[in-house]
Design a protein that fits this description.
Layout: E1 4-9, H1 13-26, E2 29-34, H2 37-46, E3 51-55, H3 63-72, E4 81-84, H4 95-135, E5 137-142, E6 147-150, H5 152-158, H6 162-165, H7 180-191, E7 196-203, E8 209-220, E9 226-235, H8 237-265, H9 271-286, H10 291-300, H11 313-316, H12 324-331, H13 333-341, H14 347-358, H15 379-394, H16 405-414, H17 422-430, H18 432-441
Parallel strand pairs: 1-2, 1-3, 3-4
Antiparallel strand pairs: 5-6, 5-9, 7-8, 8-9
Helix pairs in contact: 2-3, 8-9, 9-10, 9-15, 9-18, 10-14, 13-14, 14-15, 15-16
Length: about 450
Amino acid sequence: MDKQNILIIDDDNKSIHLVTSALNISNLYNIHFAINAKNGIEQLELREHSLIILDVNSPQLDANETVKIIKNSSLQNQIPIIFLSEISPAKPFRKEEFLRKVKRNIKLYLSRKKQIEIDDTKILLEQYKIATDAGSLVSKTDARGIITYVNDRFCEVSKYSREELIGNPHNITRSPDVSKDTFKDLWETILAKETWKGTIKNRAKDGSPYYVESTVMPILNANDEIVTYISIRTDITSREITLREGILSSQKEILNTLGELGEWRSKETGEHVTRVSLFSEMLAKAYDCSEEEIQLIKMASPMHDIGKVIIPDNILLKPGKLTKEESLVMQNHTLYGWEIFNKSKNALLQAAALIAHQHHERWDGTGYPRGIGGEDIHVFGRITAVADVFDALTQERAYKKAWSLEKTLDFMKDESGKAFDPKIIDLLLENIDEIIEIKTLHTKE
C-alpha cells in the first residue's frame, strides 16, 4: 500500500513531537503540519489526505470551529478526524492505542473511499449503458459465439425478437454477400484477445440488408481467459445505401458509355444498348430473378458487344458478307469482352464479363464461343441474347432494313428451343406490349 498522507493540526511542539515519533515508527505515513484551520485548508488543497489529527486543547485553536471549516469545505470533507486530548503525567500518551486508532480510521476511510469509487463507477456504467442502448445495437455472446444478450435496438434493426436471437450464433443475421475472409479476420483478431473493428453487411429477418460499423471486444477473467464477447454496432444503413447507390450510378454510367462506344465503332446508334438494357430488365423481372439480379443485368447488359472495340475496322465495318475467316475473327468479340472484365471481383463487372462471353451461345449448343447449351448458359446470357436479337432485327442497320414486328416475332418463335430459351421467348411474347412501349420511348425518329 502507498504511504498515506496524515495532516496534524496543532500548535504545541511537544504534542507534535510525540505524535510524529509514534507515526514514524511504522514508516507508513507522510506527515504534514498546520497550526490553524486556515493553514489546514491550505494543506488540504495541496494534496489528498487520509487522516486529520487535531489538538482539542490548544488555546490558539478552536477545535469545533476548525472541524466545521474543514467539513464545510469541498476539499476531502469525508476525511476522518482523531482528536488529540491533553498529554500530561496524569494523562500519558498511549502510543500503541493511538497507532491502532490511526490504522483503524485510515483503513475505514480507504474502504469507504473505495466503495464510493465503485458506486460512482456503477452509476457511470449504467448511464453509459443507457446512452449506448439508445443509439447502438448491443449484443453479448459466450466464448463459443452463442448470443446471450441483445438490446432493444438490435431487435428493432434486425427485425428478430429477443427469443429468436438468444441461443443462436450471430450468423443468424449474416448476409451471404459478406466474404468468409471478413469473418476469418474477425475471429482471428478476437481470439488473439484484441478488439476488432469493421463495417459489415447483415441481413434482417425479412431479408432486407442493413449495414453496421462494428466493434467486437473479448472480455477476460482474472485468469486471462475469454469468457464473453461484447459487440457494439452503429447502424449506418442509410449512409451506406446512399454511398453504394452513388457508386452503382457511376458504374452504370461508365458501362453505358463503354457500351455506346462499342456500338459507335460499329456505326450503330447508342440507343441500342439502352433498349437492350431495358428489355433485359423487363424480361428478368418476368423471369422472377431477384432484385439484385435484375439490377445487375440492367446495368451490365449494355456491355454485351464491348469486345467489338478490339475487332479491326476492315472486318467490323465491312458492308458486305464476311468470309469464313472474317466471321471467326468477329466471333472473338465475345472472348475480348470476357477478358476485359473477368479479372474483376466486382459483381457488376463479373456480370458484364459473363454477358459479353455468353450472349451468342445457343440453347441447342451450336453457338459460340464455347458451344454450351440449355441452362449451362447463364440466365443473364440467355436473356440478353433475346433482347439483343429482337432489337437488332427491328432496327435498320447499315447492312439491312428493319424487320416488321410480325416477321421478327415469327423468327423468335421459330428459334425458340434452338437459339433461345423457350421460357424467355414465352415471356417476350406475353409482354410484347411493354417491349414495344420501351422501344418507342427510346428510339429517335
